[in-house]
Amino acid sequence: MKQIEMYEYGKLREQSGAIPDISDTQILVEVYVNAVNSGDRMIVSGAMKTAAPLRLPHVPGLELAGIVRRTGRLVTSLREGDRVVGLSPAGGGYADYAVLEESCAAAVPAGLALTGAVSLAAAGLSARQALFVFGGLRPGQRVLIEGAAGAVGHLAVQLAKQSGAYVIAVARPAQHEFLRGLGADRIIRYDEETPDGSFEPADLALGMIREAASSPPQPADGPNAALSSAQPGPELQPQAYRLLKDGGTFVSLISPSIANVPSPRGIRALFARVLPNQSDWTALLSDASEGRLRLHTEAVFPFTADGIQEAYRNSEHGKRGQFLIVRKNEE
Known about the structure:
The protein folds into 2 domains: about 1-120 and about 275-325, Medium-chain alcohol dehydrogenases, catalytic domain (Quinone Oxidoreductase, Chain A, domain 1, Alpha-Beta Complex), CATH 3.90.180.10; about 125-270, Rossmann fold (3-Layer(aba) Sandwich). Helices cover about 20% and strands about 30% of the residues. The protein contains 8 helices and 17 strands. The strands form 4 sheets. Strands 3, 4, 5, 6, 7, 16 and 17 form a 7-stranded mixed sheet that branches. Helix 3 (about 125-135) crosses helix 4 (about 155-160). The longest helix is centred in the middle third of the chain and has 12 residues, at about 125-135. The chain is globular, with a radius of gyration of 19 Å. The chain starts with a strand and ends in a 5-residue tail after the last strand.
């Protein structure tokens, strides 16, 4: 089978490999599409090599969708031939065939393309769990969403709005019209010190902007793409903290250390350590297949070493929705 492996940090190559074996609790998936994940991008670049060293060569690829070709004898929720979406926490998704634990995959309903479903593998899971598991969002509350046009953000905007919340989206001006179409109630610029006009502070904020001294803020786009080696604290999230009410909740998707840093004004700071969850995936996939959740794909790239590197470069700046790596179209 074909696979794309990292043989040095920052360098990818196409190689041939053997189709992997599975254990009793695993499934073998013929991979049709991957979503570009900032966690993969950081791993390949070497940004994570101190915090999470790897033995090279390594096959990256956290998010994937495809067809189940084999199941372990203890697998009960999935069958051969099922269309699935899933996460491979250790990587391995940049291959024609990938192995997933049963708990790390969910069946995709008929009528929803795999190219859409893969957007929910990490980004959808992150949006849902950050809002409702960690943030405890309730109808009538005000929620501020950083990086609102990104892979996670554009789903969080829709999920929050559908739950009855008032949604404040933070994004670049070029993305504002896109966010209005998703139902955002108020949109402000990511560099806006104080919003124009009257502004009622938010009850909850999702922190998804990875600050860097030499570049504009970059949105996170997957579960535990949050595991940034920078681990920024509240001092690097000034806008979100200023726009939260006293005693509000700040949920970070990029900073594992945030709960250990004192917060101002009684703000409760949490890190959303997102985990695979079949019931969450089922709810998200149902929303998407029935038209309640719009899945936006920004660009598609080929399944080659150069294609993946190009996808990484394009996904770094001001993206809307998801970037995909497609190697096979559904019939």
